[in-house]
Design goal:
alpha+beta; six-stranded antiparallel beta sheet; two-stranded antiparallel sheet; 9 helices; 8 strands
Amino acid sequence: MSGRVPRQRAVGRNVGQAKATRVRSLGRGLDVLELVLDRREPITVNEIIRELHLPRSSVYDLVTLLVQRGYLAADADASGYTLGRQLYRLGLGHERHSLLLREARPVIAALRDEVGEIVQLSVLDHDANLVVLREEGHSRINIVFPVGMRTPINWSASGCLLISDLTDAELRLRLPATIRTSPTGRAPTEVNEVIRDIRRFRVQGHAVKRSQVHDHVVMIAAPVFDGAGRCVAAMTIVAYEVGLSERRIQALAAAVKRSAHELTRRFGAGR
């Protein structure tokens, strides 16, 4: 008897192993979706294997299932995969149930109509700036921070505002792992400099960044607060810098601050 495992214990162990396998498979599937989400072009199976360090057979099984369920779709020439329509449905469902997004959409649309520039709403997503809403303007800018794009905190005006509730000690712990060199190389990468920007932006009630991610692009952001005074989102105007006067920048800053205040009021009233 001493060498035998009781049947009940063996069954429990098998159930636990099966559960762990399902959880691991789910995690891998989510890793695949997040990898595709961060890319601008279709991704191949070989690229998924290389990026995620997964067995080839596992990747083929995951991709096949995700395509069958509509979360991935083969691109036109079948050389890779893009996000499927089922994720669009999930996004719509999220917006339906998100008070912040419901209240934000008419506010950012009204601001876009007022200033004629791109207007975006961002939230904090695992120490990254995530664009969740966007209204197109009349400018020539069409590639800056599309909806669903995650960018390092130090790149954007909105990113600095989104973590401005943290103490200096908390920022020093979290920033080193999240700071990245921007495409133009002009975004600050030294922790103390980033913290100084964060504090200055929070005190003045808005943030301005010029050509730090893309040449000749100005980002002007203002914080959106919840009822407890925490920054839960940031509204940003994205404008083309060439020909943009300092007076115009100040006018845009005033406009985005008014709209962020209106969204703060609506969000607080809805809660």
